[in-house]
Amino acid sequence: MEASAARRHVVITGAAGALGRAIASRFAAEGARLALVDRSLQHLQSVFAHPEPEHGGTLLHAADVTSDTAMAPVAAAILDAFGSVDVLVHVAGGFEMGEPTHALSRESWTRMMDLNAWSFVAVTGHFIPAMKFRQHGKVVAVTARAASSGAATMGAYTASKSALQRLVESLSHEVRGSGINVNSIAPSILDTPANRQAMASADPARWVSTGAAARAVAFLASEGAEAMHGQHLVLDGLS
């Protein structure tokens, strides 16, 4: 554990999902105070029914991460409660198989771009100014190995994750001089209940565990990654 870990304030979006829960557990074990954001407050409360009071409590907030208007009061409440944010982990996003590229609907395109790319802008816009003021901060996004190339009937998804990687790189260039590291993890297939159900015939032992992904996030949020800027840590598993 880092000496400063107990004092760190960590914001996690998409916190109620399988990966979000693993990341929250990892930072909680390090003694950090957590602000957990997801679409449904009821779902958050059911998943995190017993937050750790000895670390000052865990903040639970519902918000649409694709909406700047929805994120504004949530971010303000978090900053008011914490005073500062040391780590922002943007897990929220989405996946869907879509139409062939030549028949791609505007709805599918917009949905994937909003969830996987624009949400990064909507969320970071409210925390980066506070990090710049302190000249310190870590931002970790969850992109995808699939961002590196297109795939059949996945045009909108792969394009949106590629756009997210370009946003991570661009933001990194803009804020690295202010002591802020911006990077991402880029997993292949995560071993989650949803993926096991969707791909019942596949071997999940070849996928990336949420625990392994959480450890990679924790590394990018640590001082050990202080020289890393705008990088995408690819997590292949055995797939």
From TrEMBL:
GO terms for biological process: fatty acid elongation. GO terms for molecular function: oxidoreductase activity, acting on the CH-OH group of donors, NAD or NADP as acceptor. Transmembrane segments: none annotated. It comes from the Bacteria. InterPro entries: NAD(P)-bd_dom_sf, Sc_DH/Rdtase_CS, SDR_fam. Pfam families: adh_short (PF00106). PANTHER family: BLL7886 PROTEIN (PTHR42760:SF135), SHORT-CHAIN DEHYDROGENASES/REDUCTASES FAMILY MEMBER (PTHR42760). Belongs to the short-chain dehydrogenases/reductases (SDR) family. This is Short-subunit dehydrogenase.
